[in-house]
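This part of the workshop introduces the protein records we will be handling. The structure tokens are whole numbers drawn from a learned vocabulary of backbone shapes. The record below serves as our worked example for the rest of this section.

===
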Amino acid sequence: MLDIRIIGLGKMGINLAYNLLDHGYEVSGFDQNSEIKSEFEKNGGRFYSSFEALMEDKKPSSVIWLMLPAGEITNNQVSSCVQAMNQGDILVDGGNSKFTDSQKNGEKAKEQGVYFFDVGTSGGTSGAREGACMMIGGDAEKFEYIRPLFEVLCVKDGYFYCGPVGSGHYLKMIHNGIEYGMMQAIGEGFNLIHHGEYDYDLAGVAKVFNNGSVIRSWLMGLTENLLQEDPDLKDIEGVIPSSGEGKWTAEEMLRQELSAPVITQALLARYASVDEEKYGEKIVASLRNQFGGHKVSKK
């Protein structure tokens, strides 16, 4: 059985580790946060205090699996890993890396004779623990060797071999762009209902939408959950950070000279939500006052 070594035991990484441990795999891990050591080992994992220690006693059957923030952190870790790995070893990036970074990381690995797989992971922390959805790019023949991992990590029919290196993270990027649009549509719809003339039980609305309707989905189920807890969302600030994938999807739209207005508008709505200064809106309000004498709201 494969020996799995996970670098990055955050919310996603540690839940993937527990999923694998539940299925009888030997799982080791390293994270800069050593406070998770006792919990991880209590659940059957082996914690290493350094990257070097993790790599020193790896086995021929070891699979190194990265669950790290996208960008420089992951790219640097890939470079460190391939230098410490042997020809024929397997390196997996299960984070949300940009597909062009994964293509470059795949080339780094190939130069050292290491097989690199880019795995787009969806389903959140609960999916990582109980059954995820994964989109996999890499060598087709070597994929068959690690296919059993995806059989246990994913829900039934929940993994897809996409093609060469980069294709897994490309598909995950588009997936997240679609997610942006879906969430924005749900938010806008419930905003209209909330401000409309009828006093709906909003959790009840989400529940009926999620049972038999065309728009039923996991996201709608999550909407029901949060509206049951706090229908007015009094404790939530309407700031929506953007983690990168929506922007990358919009950039890909421009590169291909195609149209994706819903995804793009959802991204722009996120940008607007974090703009506390609203300087552009102030300009527009002032211009309306200048040319038409329209009232300007003052602080």
